[in-house]
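Let us begin with a simple case.
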Amino acid sequence: MLDLMLILLVDDPTPEPTQVKAGPLGFAVWIFMILAVVAIGFFMVRQLRRAQANKDAGMFGDEPVDRSATPSDSEDR
């Protein structure tokens, strides 16, 4: 039995690189993955901006931040 399995494993030909192609389904999967990463990044940045705005407004128990009262770099000079 072991001899038969070894013969089958040794006799199994490996396809050449030119015989293996991803095709249109593989291309569609890559495009979908790229679009998913872009969408996740877009929505994550949007959510982080909302969270920062809520933090600045004092929604999480912090002191509210007045952005107009902070001195700019040009006033410090």
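The second case is a distinct protein. As before, the sequence precedes its structure tokens.
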Amino acid sequence: MALAAGVDRKVVQEMLGHSSAALTSDTYTSVLPEVAHDAAEAAARLVPRQKRSRAHPGSREPNSSTSTDGCVA
């Protein structure tokens, strides 16, 4: 329950008398899928994302190298 409440694994390890935080993590994150999900979400928030253009995916927007008739300049 402490892990689900956001308590650091090292603290939980010491509370339970485990030999390592890895043992605590291996034992309880499989029992508490929401803990694993929350960790994945937190990691995903760290990944920079590009802003999408408003163009439909797969469509080509004209750029400076394309003339109005579609030919490359």
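The longest helix spans residues 33-46. The mean pLDDT is 76.
Keep these points in mind for the review questions at the end of the chapter.
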